[in-house]
Design a protein that fits this description.
There is one protein chain. Helix 1 runs antiparallel to helix 2 and helix 2 packs antiparallel against helix 3. With 287 residues, this protein is mainly alpha-helical. The chain contains 15 helices and three strands. It starts with 10 loop residues before the first helix and ends in an 8-residue tail after the last helix.
Length: 287
Amino acid sequence: MKALIFSGTDLGQLEEQLDAWRQGQSGRVRLPAELWEAAARVSRTHGVSRVSRVLGINSPRSVKSKFLLVPASEVELPRMEKRLPQDVLTLSEVERLLTVPDVGDPLGVRDRAMLELFYSTGLRRTELCRVELPDVNTERRTLHVRLGKGKKDRVVPVGARALAWLERNLKEVRPRLCLDTRTPALFLTGYGDAFNPDVVSRMVSGWLKQAGLKRKGCCHTLRHSCATHMLENGADIRFIQQLLGHEKLETTAIYTEVSIKQLQEVHARCHPSSKLAAENPLPQATP
């Protein structure tokens, strides 16, 4: 439709615009957003009932409800970019990262426990900072995550290795750092306080650099790696959704696109070139 819409509030002009638009239209077609916007403006001067008659709609109520949607009802909004996580670590890279803290030092034991918990549970950094002593159930091997995204709680399993490091932190390190018995946080700084999420991010970023891993992400690197590795080892995506605390399954489904392991296996099994490579010697690069 050409940009012929007037900017005034004249009812006659609106009718002329409608007649001009209807010429050349066949069958039932939706009124463009520009005309709905003009009709809504005219209705503020002449009333919804008169405008509805001009529009040829018998129900002023339905016209009024339509005005509430103007102009966004006919506008196609830009779609958000769908970016895949680029910072997933391999298993060997995860092991390299986990061995960075010096466990001969009490703070190194605490740091190793933090990394292990990140990778085992896929926690967000704020969730890890909020973990309190009663949240860890060593008998059931679970962690109560309080006030996750959307202020929702959830209970997640903790792996045996992560749990062992948590217990060591609780017995050997935390009592030395705790200056006030009323402090409930599981992980304490050298000053006996709960961690700030930004401080945790800087710590993880430093450990990644020490491990020689160039990744843009920090704490989310371990979260992405946890989800991807579980998916590659056969975990149902609904369980990963519950583990990560995603409200919508579509959010978790992105990891099905990140995981390349299963696609590689199918490609090697089904693609003709893979079969030919197995039957014939591959070309060698000349020195």
